[in-house]
Amino acid sequence: MKNIYQIILITCFFAMLSSCIPSITSKKVNKNVPSSYGINSDSSNAAKLSWKKFFTDSALVKLIDTALANNQRFNMILQDIIIANNQIKARKGAYLPFVRLFGGGGIDKSGRYTSMGALENNLQITPGNPKPEVMPNIFLGANVAWQVDVWKQLRNAKKSALYNYFASVEGKNFAATILVSEVAQSYYELIALDNQLEILKANIEIQKNALEIIILQKKAGTVTELAVLRFEAEVAKNNSRQYYVQQKIIETENKLNFLLGRFPKKIDRKSAEFLDLTPSIVANGIPSQLLENRPDIKAAENLMSAANVDVKVAKANFYPLVNITGNIGYEAFSPRYFLSTPQSILANMAGGLVAPLINRNAIKADYNAANARQIQAVYNYERTVINAYTEVVNNQSNIDNLLKSYDFKAKQVKALTRSIDISISLFKSALADYVEILFTQRDALESKMELVETKKQQMNAVVKMYQVLGGGVK
Question: What was the pLDDT predicted at 375?
Fold first, then answer.
C-alpha cells in the first residue's frame, strides 16, 4: 500500500506541473480568393504548360535548359532539399530506441590496509586459488536508451520537418519559375538591343545620305554652313549612341551567361524576326488555381503547417518525459570466465519521469514564441496569396495596354518613315527647309527605337504572366 501511495503522489505532482500551461491565441487562416480577375475567364490556365511547350524559340529553350542544369543559385536550393530530407530522417530516428555497444577492460587494486583491501585479501575465488592483488576486468555489452514518445513530441517534430521539406521543394519550384523568367526576359532584352543597333546603323546611313544632299545644297548656295554642321552633329551623336547600345549588348549577354552558370561567351539567338514576334495569348484561369499552381503559395502553406505542429512540440515540453534505460552484457575478471552464463551476465533496467520545475519560464517563452511564429506563418500565407492575385491582375492589365500601345507606335513608325522621303523631296524642291528633314529623321529614329522597346516589354509581360500564374516548374 505504501508503494501505491507513493506512485499516486508522484503522478499528482507531475499532473500539477503539467496543468500550468499558459493559454495562447492562435490565428485561423483565410483561404478565400476572388472568383475572377475582373474579366470573363475559364479554367484554362497557361501554368499547366511546361516551359518547353510555352516557349517556341529553340534558341531560348536551349538556354533555359542550360540554366536549370548549371545555375549555381538554383543548385544551392537543390541542396536545401537534401538538407531538409536529412532533417526528416533525424527526427524519425529520435523517437526510436537508441542502442549502443560498449566494451572495455581495466585493472583494479585496493590498498591492503583499506577496508576493501582487507576484505578482498581474505576472499577466495576457488579453493586454493586466492584473489590476486591486481584484479583485471573486461566487459562487453549493449546499452539501450529510449524516450517514450507519450505526448507525440518527437513524432510532431518529425511532422514539422516533413512540412519544411515540402516547403523546400516548393521553394525550389518557385526558384525554377523565376529562373526561367529571368532567362527569357534577358534573352528578349538582348535581341531587342540587337534590333535597336541595326536601326541605329540604318538611320546613320540615311542621315549620311541627307548630309551629302545638304553639302551639295550648300555648294549651290541654297543653305548655309549651319545646316551642314547640324547634320554632321546628328550623325556624330548617333555614331556615339551605337557604342552605348553595343555596351548594353555585352552586359546583357554576360548577364545571361551568368544565369546559365558559365563564363562570358557568345549567345546564340534569333534577332532578325524580333518585331514579327506575336505575343502568346496567356490563359489566366481562375484565382483559386493560384493555390494549386503557385509554388510560393504552396511553400507558405507548408511553412504554416510546420508552425502549427511546432506549437504542439513546444507544448509537450511542459509534460514529463518518460525515459527507459537498460544495459546487458558480459563482465568478468578473466577471459576464461567471460562467456560463463549466467554467472558473468550483467543486466539492469530503469525507467523515470522528468518534468521541468525551475526553468519553466524558458519553456513558456519557447511556447509563446512558437505561437507567435504560427501567427506569422498565417499572415505570410495570406500576404503571399494577395500578392499572387495582384501580380496576375497587374500583368493582365500591362499586356492589354502594351498591345494597344504597340499598335499606335507601329502606325507612328510607318508615318514617320514615309515622311523622311517626303521631307527630302520637299527640300530638294525648296518647299521645306533642312530643319524639317533633321527633325523628321530624329523623330523616325526615336519612334523605331520605342517600337522595339515596346515589343520587348510585350514579350517580357507575357513571360511575367506565365511566371506569376505558376508556370515554368516542369
Answer: 95
